Amino acid sequence: MITPRRWLPTPVLSLLLLFVWLLMARSYAPGQILLGGVLAIVIPLVTFRFWDTKLRIKKPWVLVRFILRVLKDIVVANFEVARLVANPWKRLKPHFIEYPLMLEERFTITLLASTISLTPGTVSANLRLDGKSLLIHALDVEDEQALIEEIRERYERPLKEIYEC
Question: Could you list the residue ranges that cross the membrane (predicted)?
């Protein structure tokens, strides 16, 4: 017997794919909904076996807070970077930082690195082969340790709590 879990391994991803398809198509015509629905089912089925981990979200409300925090940080960082770039008298202090990771799962490390790269002014440059630290480039660093603590408190600890890893 085919169970819903077998033909729809990631229902949230399927809904997200359908939503993104309809946004890209800019149409809610029945044909677009049907095509988006087919893609939303087929893409996870084809790619699911290649995924590394099967982590489950343990605290969805913490995830919602995390997403809102990241969105707010992206907006604020955009204004800060614009201010830094527009001010020719400000001497920037770009710096590479070796960030020691508390996370161990590759999926959550990827989420952290992506979050850091999404925030203007910082980019994840490299993950060490042992997976114990992340090399981050920041546009303007006054205090390296303060930046490490800010990333740990704002991004890494919530990810650790969301996935309980």
Answer: 7-25, 31-51
pLDDT digits (tens, 9 = 90+) for 137-147: 999 888 999 99
pLDDT tens digit sequence for 100-131? 999 988 889 999 999 999 999 899 999 988 88
**104 part of a folded domain:** yes
**Tokens 């704002």 sit at which residue?**
154
The residue range of the domain holding 38 is 4-50
Same domain, 43 and 68: no
Residue 52: CB partners within 8 Å, gap ≥ 6? 106, 107
Residues 96 and 26 in one domain: no
Both 88 and 125 in one domain: the answer is yes
DSSP-assigned beta bridge partners for residue 135 = 98, 126
In a domain, 19, yes or no: yes
Q: Which alpha helices (DSSP H) does the chain contain, by range?
A: 4-7, 11-25, 30-47, 60-86, 106-118, 144-151, 157-163
How many angstroms separate the Cα of 148 from the Cα of each of 101, 106, 115, 122, 143?
10, 20, 14, 12, 9
- What is the amino acid identity at position 110? T
Neighbours of 115 (CB within 10 A): 23
